[in-house]
Input
Amino acid sequence: MAVGCVIAQENLTRFKKAANAYAGSRITDEHLKRKIYIDSKIDFSDISSGFIENFYLLSPFGAGNPKPIFMTEKAEVVREPQKIKGKHAKLLVRQKGRIFEALGWDRGELVQSIQKGDKIDLAYSFQFSQYMGEEKLSLSLEDIKT
Output
């Protein structure tokens, strides 16, 4: 919801104080927590070529059609997590015999407390890239729960 109004310069400070007091009395820490809506809980063993073909059918993705967010539980970190350029997270994770690279763009903080061998729950979407003519599937991290 948006509102438009005109405030005289001499009333601006008083308006800011009143607006902040109003918001402060109603906004809790719970309101400020990042919420992620999971579309489906899956195992890595569910990710097949048919699954990916169906994923493609949902595209194109954008503001009116966001990428689905998946959750996988108890994935093992199989290599020491990396923080790339001080701001990106990179993990190699295994679950149910399948291994995927997981990347968290501008989410370097996700790997600060994770070590090789840890079991983690992942929230992610799929990311496809091409390298030397081959398409590669990786996980685009939304969040991690240890």
Observations:
- The chain has one domain: 40-145.
